[in-house]
Amino acid sequence: MSATSETPSPDLSRLRAALTVFFALDGFLFAGWVVRIPAVKDQTGASASGLGLALLGVSAGAVVTMTLTGRLCARFGSRPVTVVCGLLMPLGVALPPLTHSALALGLVLLLFGAAYGGINVAMNSAAVVLVRALRRPVMPSFHAAFSLGGMIGAGLGGLVAGHLSATRHLLGLAVIGLLVTAVTAPTLLRYEMPAPPAAADARAVAPRRTGGGARGLVLVFGLVALCTAYGEGALADWGALHLEQDLHAHPGVAAAGYSCFAFAMTVGRLSGTTLLERFGGTRTVVGGGLLAAAGMVLGALAPSTGAALAGFAVTGLGLANIFPVAIERAGAVAGPSGVAAASTLGYGGMLLGPPAIGFMADWFSLPVALTSVAVLAALAACIAGTAGRTPAAP
User: Which helix (H) or strand (E) holds 189?
Assistant: First the structure.
């Protein structure tokens, strides 16, 4: 490895730091909203079904916007679009507690979801370019920042929930988000990212990477992202219930189930660059998928709470780097449109997980339903291993 790749220029280091802040801000704001959903439900007077329909606004807004954001990034650049979405998302998070009906809540969540989907595609597209410029597989570090931001946002929300109304809390988050964007945006926009040394060769082969072969690769990476995001969504919504209902854990212990998963995922992502440099993308994805499958079998079928928590943690370690690698590879193949397509499929997996687990729990049992996470993690490993087309880490 050259000295240049080992010691990035100060400009690239500043860009990396600024982009990391946007990833952390995304996780922070989204987690802050999630922990106040019960309070917003009470304020709007929505029924459980009405709330469920309103929450679909986040998903609908995100999915619709992701494809559009890919086109905007290709036209205007991913970093300016990241900044615009970094302004819109804090504004969007302040709106839900201002509503007083499920219909109004659903409409404002469309706007919030649009900003959330937009910033995810834009900042991942910017990260793909930066990864190539750095010539190091640092994509997992950005997603680690997202996870850390989410943990901080959720922890802060839990601390203030008993003291601040949802309106004041989310308005405070909006102010924080706007200030962070205002401070960080100039750095993200000021410095240019130099083309990687192989840029000329990449431009020469670009026309051959825009047809069916490229679309097929993006689909492969998108399916890998879907399989792993399914597990994250399922554990977020059903992990605590499994611990409390099936293993009779104390509610406080049950609530720690997702925390174990999220913490392990954060640790795994912080070590992701080292893993990718040592083993490469394909082996990291295959190994992670198999590890997650084994962990989820333990988490779903273990007879004790301690073993189940250990299984959740192992699952988090296994899944940690698969989604970042899949998104980065899709972007390397097809640019912002590849990031948009893979992100949309991945986000679809996160949305599919919770309702799919619910239906299977009714048909069989919740522990059996949760083993579907293991099946899809193993499937992600099989897809990556069979394709054998994941480019080596830069």
Answer: helix 166-190
Q: How many CA atoms lie within 13 A of 261 on its CB side?
A: 24
DSSP state of 45: T
pTM of this prediction? Answer: 0.81
d(CA 221, CA 218): 5
Task: Report the candidate in 309, 307, 335 with the shortest Cα–Cα distance to residue 129.
Answer: 335
Q: Which tens digits make up the pLDDT trace of 70-128?
A: 899 989 999 999 999 999 999 999 999 999 998 999 999 999 999 999 999 999 999 98
Work out the angle between the directed axes of helices 37-44 and 48-76 (0-180°, nearest 10): 120
Q: DSSP per residue over 203-243, as a string?
A: HHHGGGGSSHHHHHHHHHHHHHHHHHHHHHHHHHHHHHHII
Q: What contacts 260, CB < 8 A, 6 or more positions away?
A: 309, 312, 313, 316
CB 153 within 8 A of CB 32: yes
Task: Round to whole Å and give the CA distance between 78 and 85.
Answer: 10
C-beta of residue 141 within 8 angstroms of C-beta of residue 8: no
d(CA 292, CA 229): 12
DSSP 232-245: HHHHHHHHHHIIII
Q: Helix crossing, 305-319 with 251-270: angle to 10°?
A: 30
